[in-house]
Specification:
Elements: E1 10-14, H1 40-53, E2 60-63, H2 71-83, E3 91-94, H3 102-115, E4 120-123, H4 134-148, E5 153-156, H5 158-162, H6 172-185, H7 193-197, H8 216-221, E6 224-227, E7 232-235, E8 244-245, H9 251-257, H10 264-272, H11 275-283, H12 296-309, H13 320-323
Length: about 325
């Protein structure tokens, strides 16, 4: 079985961990307390390395957190991408929290369109709408389609937007029911805040249920990766599992020379899955949850969270934002 990283063909640059919301399903654990944001020099360096790696603009996206947190940085990041011949950008994500006024939305989206954007991805679901009025999402979609065209705007999830509910009017029991329905319609990664806020709403299993799983495909075979505001490189579905850092090795060199045998957490996950990690955490004092675990990702996240708080494997598990308790 090959231990080489697959050829990457798409990349997400997480400009910030800040978000106005603290959504229950957020696998990155973003919130208003998470202030760390990339500097423009970091963005430029990432984009330069991505161009040298052979990435195309259509395979890149800016995300967060919420990338509209610092609109000046966002626009400067588009300009930096233009300088590296990486426009039009494939995708820009937002929760539309900033869409408070028609003129503001039109002005910003026109500026972004003129720089070069293929798709604006707008989040809309029962989790986001705990924090963002649905009217702002509707405004973003309406004006986004006016400026970018129908094919230039995608809503996740469009079904919810067509029949929205306001979770702020629900009792706790009603909200949990709404969350359960959402989880049936779309499975969420039980990492970050989702592990704490949603895992009790789905079926859970004893740790032994994950004995015959491994994470070879998720870590080595993924063709999509993320770069966070600290420069950490994550597999796309494994927020908080650090494979390397763009500050210590350029992406091309990192990709060619990655050796999982030098990274014990990644090596264990690739070869044996999360159960051995979890059992190691138990030996160091982690308390097993008698209710069980929702998925192998949930089991892995609980072990990694314990290690992070114990100061173990700091080069592979981080940053604090992803593992912090609310």
């Amino acid at each position: 079985m090959s231990k080489q990283l697959a050829k990457w063909d798409s990349v997400g640059i997480l400009l910030t961990y800040w978000c106005n919301a603290a959504c229950a399903h957020c696998y990155e654990n973003s919130s208003p307390r998470c202030r760390h944001t990339m500097s423009l020099d970091q963005v430029r360096d990432c984009l330069r390395q991505l161009r040298q790696l052979g990435c195309k603009g259509a395979a890149l996206h800016f995300a967060g957190g919420e990338p509209f947190y610092d609109y000046g940085l966002l626009i400067d990041s588009f300009r930096a991408a233009r300088d590296e011949l990486l426009l039009p950008l494939g995708k820009l994500e937002t929760n539309a929290f900033w869409c408070t006024d028609d003129d503001l939305v039109r002005q910003r989206l026109t500026e972004i369109r003129d720089l070069g954007l293929i798709e604006l991805l707008i989040s809309s679901d029962v989790f986001h709408q705990e924090f963002i009025p649905i009217e702002r999402v509707q405004r973003a979609v309406r004006i986004g389609r006016e400026v970018l065209g129908d094919q230039g705007v995608r809503v996740r999830s469009s079904e919810f937007l067509q029949n929205p509910i306001d979770p702020t009017t629900l009792t706790n029991e009603q909200r949990d029911d709404a969350f359960r329905c959402a989880l049936i319609q779309r499975e969420e990664r039980m990492l970050g805040r989702a592990a704490r806020a949603l895992s009790h709403l789905v079926d859970r299993h004893p740790k032994e249920a994950f004995a015959n799983t491994d994470c070879h495909r998720e870590i080595l075979l993924t063709r999509h990766f993320h770069i966070d505001p600290y420069g950490h490189i994550f597999p796309c579905v494994c927020a908080g599992l650090i494979l390397g850092n763009v500050k210590t090795a350029d992406l091309a060199t990192f990709h060619e020379t990655f050796n999982c045998d030098e990274r014990p957490v990644s090596r264990t996950l690739i070869d044996h899955g999360p159960l051995p990690l979890f059992e190691e955490a138990l030996r160091h004092g982690l308390q097993e949850d008698p209710a069980g675990y929702a998925s192998q990702c949930h089991l892995c996240y609980e072990a990694r969270t314990f290690f992070r708080r114990q100061g173990m494997y700091p080069d592979e598990i981080g940053p604090d934002e992803i593992y912090a308790a609310d």
